[in-house]
Amino acid sequence: MTYEIDVESDTKESALVDFSDFKSGYYWIFPKGDFYTTGFGDFSLLKARNLEDINLKFNKKYGIRGKIISKGGAFIPVFDGRLYSGEEGILLTGDAASMVDPFTGEGIYFAALSAKKASQLILEYFDDKVAVAVEYKKFLDSFIAEFKWALFLRRLFFRFRTSMFKVMEISDEIRSVATDIISSNIRYNEAFRKFLKSSIKLPMRFVHVTGFDKKRKRKESKGLSSLDI
Ligand SMILES: Cc1cc2nc3c(=O)[nH]c(=O)nc-3n(C[C@H](O)[C@H](O)[C@H](O)COP(=O)(O)OP(=O)(O)OC[C@H]3O[C@@H](n4cnc5c(N)ncnc54)[C@H](O)[C@@H]3O)c2cc1C
């Protein structure tokens, strides 16, 4: 689920992303000149009634109280293992095809891209509905491997979220991989390869920072740590 509230304000601060309180998502504030876009998305939330309240609770936390310009949200059919190309005579694009990056939640780019491809194919094979359907399916299928990597990395990231942040704090290389993912500068399998390579370089530091070396002690005290998430 994703929800957003635009709030009138003379924005000065930079963008903010807050991962607390979400099982598999985050809250954001984007300053846009004379208003803020605030909102949140959670991959694990399939439906919820109090989306506005959740958003407002976070806005209050960050002191955002101006006049509400617009608000609204929707369920986004993020890729979950399959893409839906449609059938002969009907091509599904964007959200309808589940063309939403399962790591970043980016859907606008893929909606435009798939719509462009669908229209090109319709023009190219105007009298041949079967060829259009076959070629369009091939096009969508070419994204499956990358989206599967994205799904895998998202699950990995949120499963070990606290440890991931700690590792990012101590490793410039891993922080740079994360930035590259968010700005779509890197393919997901390449990101994973870089992540592994960088992680190998800091085993002892990682062990210390994540608390692996305190595991036994924690078990005895039943205390919580990043590894319990
Ligand atoms: C709050 C929120 C924030 C988001 N932020 C981002 C973001 O920052 N970046 C990003 O990449 N993606 C974002 N997304 C996701 C993105 O908006 C969607 O993935 C994208 O808009 C999908 O485009 P689409 O053309 O497939 O579908 P839509 O944009 O949903 O367009 C479908 C259109 O079809 C119309 N329609 C529906 N039924 C009928 C009907 N029976 N007859 C005629 N028309 C009909 C609808 O009114 C709508 O205009 C966000 C989504 C939400 C809800």
How many strands appear in the DSSP assignment?
Answer: 7
Low-pLDDT ranges: 218-229
Tally of DSSP helical segments: 9
Bound molecules: flavin-adenine dinucleotide
The helix/strand order is EEEEHEEEHHHHHHHH
Cα-based radius of gyration, to the nearest Å = 21 Å
Strand order of the largest sheet: 2-3-4-1-5
- The CATH topology of the largest domain is given as D-Amino Acid Oxidase, Chain A, domain 2
Given this structure, which CATH class of the largest domain is correct? Alpha Beta
| CATH-defined superfamily of the largest domain | D-Amino Acid Oxidase, subunit A, domain 2
- Could you tell me the strand content as a percent range? 15-25%
Shape: globular
CATH level-two architecture of the largest domain: 2-Layer Sandwich
Classify the secondary structure makeup into a structural class: alpha+beta
Largest sheet: 5 strands, antiparallel
Distance between the termini: 22 Å
**Helix amount:** 40-55%
Mean pLDDT, as a whole number?
87
